Amino acid sequence: MSLKEKLIEKLKGRIPSQLLPLLPSRYPIIGNVALIRLKEQLLKYEKEIGEAVLEVLNVRAVWRFAGKTEGVIRTPRIIHLAGDPNPIVIHKELGTLFKLDISKLLFSPGNAGEREKLTKIISKDDVVLDLFCCCGNLSMPVAVNVKPKIIVGVEINPLAFKYLLETIRLNKVSHIFMPINIDNHYWSEENFATQVLLGFLPRPDEEQLRIGIRSILWDGGTLHYHVALREEELMEEREYLMKTVKREGYKIINMSIEKIKGIAPRINHYVFRIKLRRSKI
């Protein structure tokens, strides 16, 4: 029996039968907390649904997504439905521990595939710059599993930075992970990284992109540029990236586009992996 079928069985007689097919079939879990999305028709019964999910999944708590992530510091909008209301969790993935407050910090279980892929793309000889570090959402598994020369993690949000420090401590990677609590628009180090992560949706702004490009070692490196787009917008984005790289005095050796996940009707999370080097060294 699927999770949705189990949930329907639990809720028969507790919510109107015509609403049962609208129950979600996916329940992302961070640590031992389930996060659910509910259609508008189900919101009146959110507490009953939360209690049922708590029983079916045997988790510590259930929270509901209540809207889009907001602002530069990426504050999620979620509401506690059932179980322990403490929002602080320790999530384990790829042998890596992440400590965070799920009510105030964004962590996407849907990016697990991208985190794993980065551990295969990045090598122990790399120098990594993560310009949107949060609590190490993309780069911490690289630190734990690959142990590159160094990872520089830049994070503007003081709360995210606090949990980044906790996560570094939990994973015992302080010897290779350098956390910096600044607005990445003020990052000025150039010509030093072989891998640059720009993991911010819906998109990094143009100055952040330029900073990421200039951070790449002149001899060559890879930019991982994340963006939320419709499929028909991909080629326009590709042209924008090509022009920006050229204006910064670099040339593209190779560019690939990979879909990470769907995030809204007709809108997907993509990553552009751009291998580039200085045009004239």
What low-confidence regions span 5 or more consecutive residues with pLDDT below 50? none
**Over all CA atoms, what is the radius of gyration?**
20 Å
- Strand order, main sheet: write it out: 9-8-7-10-11-13-12
CATH class of the largest domain, please?
Alpha Beta
Total tally of structural domains: 2
Number of strands: 13
Dominant shape: globular
Structural class comes to alpha/beta
- First-last Cα distance: 61 Å
CATH fold naming of the largest domain: Rossmann fold
Determine the CATH superfamily of the largest domain.
Answer: Vaccinia Virus protein VP39
CATH architecture of the largest domain: 3-Layer(aba) Sandwich
- Sketch the topology as an H/E string, one letter per element: HEEHEEEEHEHEHEEHEHEE
Number of helices: 7
Strand content: 25-35%
Helix content: 25-40%
Give the overall average pLDDT: 92
Quaternary arrangement of the chains shown?
Answer: single chain
Main sheet attributes: strand count, strand direction, barrel closure: 7 strands, mixed
Features:
281 residues; alpha/beta; GMP Synthetase, Chain A, domain 3; seven-stranded mixed beta sheet; four-stranded mixed beta sheet; 7 helices; globular
Task: Explain how this protein is built.
The protein has 281 residues and is of the alpha/beta class. Helices cover 27% and strands 32% of the residues. It has two domains: 3-86, 2-Layer Sandwich (GMP Synthetase, Chain A, domain 3); 109-278, Vaccinia Virus protein VP39 (Rossmann fold). The chain has helices spanning 3-11, 46-57, 112-121, 140-145, 158-171, 206-215, 234-247, and strands at 29-30, 33-36, 61-70, 75-83, 88-93, 96-101, 127-130, 150-154, 177-180, 195-198, 221-230, 250-264, 267-278. Strands 9-8-7-10-11-13-12 form a seven-stranded mixed beta sheet, sandwiched between helices. Strands 1-2-3-4 form a four-stranded mixed beta sheet. Helix 1 (3-11) packs across helix 2 (46-57). The termini are far apart.
